[in-house]
Specification:
This protein is mainly β. It folds into three domains: about 280 residues, 7 Propeller (Methylamine Dehydrogenase, Chain H), CATH 2.130.10.10; about 210 residues, Zn-dependent exopeptidases (Aminopeptidase, 3-Layer(aba) Sandwich), CATH 3.40.630.40; about 110 residues, Immunoglobulins (Immunoglobulin-like, Sandwich). The protein is built from seven helices and 45 strands. The strands form twelve sheets. The protein has a six-stranded mixed beta sheet with strand order 31-28-32-37-33-36. A four-stranded antiparallel beta sheet has the order 1-26-25-24, with no helix packed on it. A hairpin with a 6-residue loop joins strand 3 and strand 4. Helix 2 crosses helix 7 and helix 4 crosses helix 7. The protein is elongated and about 90 Å long. The structure holds zinc ion.
């Protein structure tokens, strides 16, 4: 790709019109949108807390809305009106979204879709606007033309007559984003998360592959504007690009130092924002752009209609899961295991345990009647999505919460271990309502896991207070996210015994289970699910780990027992479950999906000899934690 770039840069066939670059807003102008007549600029401050409108002729700025996080995804219709969506947490913390239409000419604001659960998104159509709700949708006129939208890894194309076709032009994508029809209505452009920007025909046949870019928009029928895909650490390399469908042009049009993001094009005017300051710029190119077909301000009223076959039938909680960064490289953390040391070939990778927890959480939540969406299902370099892709996939899913799964590392020799929830905002003052409540609920359950040795209490912190990275910088993956949510640092994987536990998939499952319990509490679903869990560890009572300077605490000083066999019998004496502890020095065992009962747990070691018997009472929906110890001198039972 680098060679192509150089060549394209040198060609100089097309470029920025001399003297056309202007600053439209000095700061905090995220997700800028320019009106079809070029007179108005719509934008949002960093936190989506308000939606601002600037009259570019007079410089006057109006607040369109400042309740319900109206920022980030508002659009102009071809009628010049502003369509935006607000959200509110209703009963049991489900997020309901309301669509509005604001007329810049008169200042009149109208609700066009009443509050509904799930996704509500304003989408431009060729001759109007469609607000795409899952239960009810709104059309700005009888004939809005054709339009496209995405959900998961399906691209939906709605034609003039209202017929819907579902397309899957790219295989194995983590989801489609930013779909749009070309000005002439003959092609569809979209980004396939982790794969890049594509253009397909109306039958879903890919006709152009434009490369790894984000937020593409049509300049005309041949040229496209997009932003760089900078991966999961968006610290540099953010630029605005000009691309041509024939592959001849692939050229950055913004300065490298500017770190430009969020481009949008209308009638030949390109607007974009600078990542850190939020300064909004506008530029024009020296190639012709088609004039947008003006839509007559007809008498015809817009209409809300019922969706005939909604994909989701019930108002159940929907969770967007982001199992951390992927791919064993970039930001991943490899840590050699304790006993094997530097010669270790198995290796602990945070990306592995994050994914194991994420996939487990999907299964657990599904069994509990939740709906889920997840940002990756595998662990390759290409699963390392750009932060914009993750946040956009979450927004696209219409979820009630955003949940990012990680584990922590101190990066120094201070060995500590506790669950930490990081939400966007200041300590005690989350940027999005509900985030602190959710973090507290999940962290409260995490600390109850007594398989781990915790050195400190659990805590929830605001990332702006926690990190010393600059005013309101915080974690990239929480930026531009307006769902209640947080990032869970479930434990510290550089606390060595904890890392050995994280190598055990059942232990990762157990963390996901405790996360689900926190979510049950947040969504008022406690007690709805009656299956139970028994989990514990097996350690030698009198054998200690080699702990020269590694610092371990309490029970973690004791050597875990590898290859111990645990048998669980139900109240009728029938064998219910069997578990053998692994060879990774964690002694972990977990029994899942148990019916409430009085169980008997037996511990076997060596040549299948019985050493210990324990009664375990399992209550409905509860988790019983049992840590077992065995003396090395103990004789087996007869
Ligand atoms: Zn991480």
């Amino acid at each position: 790709m680098a060679l192509v770039c150089l060549w394209a840069l040198g060609s100089g066939a097309v470029g920025v019109k001399h003297g056309s670059v202007k600053t439209l807003v000095d700061s905090c102008g995220f997700f800028p949108q320019i009106s079809p007549d070029g007179q108005w600029l719509l934008y949002s401050p960093t936190e989506a807390t308000s939606l601002m409108l600037k009259n570019l002729a007079t410089g006057a700025v109006t607040t369109v809305a400042s309740v319900g996080y109206p920022g980030f995804d508002a659009i102009f219709g071809p009628d010049g009106k502003v369509y935006y969506v607000t959200q509110e947490r209703k009963k049991h913390n489900l997020v309901y979204r309301t669509a509005h239409c604001y007329d810049p000419a008169t200042g009149a604001d109208q609700v066009v879709l009443k509050p509904q659960h799930g996704r509500v998104q304003a989408i431009p159509a060729t001759r109007g606007v469609v607000v795409n709700g899952e239960r009810q949708y709104y059309r700005s006129g009888k004939q809005v033309g054709s339009w496209v939208y995405t959900r998961g890894d399906v691209l939906y194309l709605v034609d003039e007559a209202g017929g819907t076709r579902s397309l899957q032009p790219v295989q194995e994508s983590n989801g489609y984003l930013w779909a749009s029809l070309s000005p002439d209505g003959t092609k569809v452009m979209f980004e396939a998360a982790s794969k890049g920007v594509f253009v397909c025909d109306l039958n879903g046949q890919v006709i152009a592959e434009l490369g790894e870019f984000l937020m593409p928009c049509w300049y005309n029928n041949e040229y496209v504007i997009a932003m760089s895909n900078a991966g999961n650490i968006r610290t540099n390399g953010s630029r605005i690009w000009l691309l041509s469908l024939d592959g001849e042009t692939m050229k950055p049009i913004s300065d490298r130092e500017e770190r430009a993001v969020q481009p949008m094009v209308c009638n030949g005017k390109i607007v974009y924002t600078l990542l850190y300051s939020g300064q909004v710029k506008q530029m024009e190119l020296d190639i012709p752009a088609p004039a947008m077909q003006p839509v007559a301000q007809g008498k015809e009223k817009g209409k809300a209609e019922k969706v005939k076959n909604p994909l989701s039938k019930n108002d159940v909680p929907r969770v967007f899961i982001n199992p951390g960064h992927g791919g064993h490289d970039s930001d991943d953390r490899h840590v050699p295991t304790w006993v094997i040391g530097a010669q270790d070939t198995i290796h602990y990778y945070e990306s592995n345990s994050n994914l194991t927890k994420g996939l487990a959480l999907v299964e657990i939540l599904k069994n509990k009647g939740y709906e889920t969406a997840i940002s990756r299902k595998t662990n390759y370099t290409e699963d390392d999505l750009d932060l914009f892709e993750i946040v956009s996939l979450a927004a696209n899913s219409g979820a009630d919460i955003f949940f990012s799964i990680h584990s922590n590392a101190t990066g120094i020799e201070k060995r500590i271990n506790f669950p930490l929830g990081l939400y966007r905002g200041w300590d005690g003052k989350p940027a999005v309502d509900g985030s602190l409540e959710l973090s507290d609920a999940v962290m409260k359950q995490a600390i109850k896991n007594t398989l781990a040795v915790w050195t400190h209490k659990e805590r929830s912190r605001g990332d702006w207070s926690f990190y010393d990275w600059g005013y309101k910088v915080g974690l990239g993956v929480l930026r531009f996210n307006k769902l209640p949510g947080f990032l869970s640092e479930g434990s510290f994987h550089d606390y060595l015994p904890e890392r050995e536990r994280l190598l055990n998939d059942s232990y990762c499952w157990l963390e996901a289970w405790t996360q689900s319990l926190g979510m049950d509490e947040y969504f008022g679903r406690k007690g709805k699910f009656k299956n139970s869990v028994v989990a514990g560890t097996v350690r030698w009572e009198d054998l200690k780990r080699h702990d020269e300077d590694k610092r371990v605490f309490d029970e973690d000083e004791l050597l875990p027992i590898n290859g111990a066999l645990l048998r669980l019998y139900n109240g009728r004496g029938a064998l219910s479950r069997v578990y053998t502890t692994d060879k990774m020095d964690n002694g972990v065992f977990v029994f899942t999906n148990l019916q409430p009962d009085k169980y008997k747990l037996e511990l076997y070691y060596g040549d299948e000899q019985l050493y210990l018997t324990k009664k375990v009472k399992v209550k409905k929906g509860k988790t019983s934690f049992i840590n077992l110890k065995l003396k090395s001198t103990q004789k087996p039972k007869k």
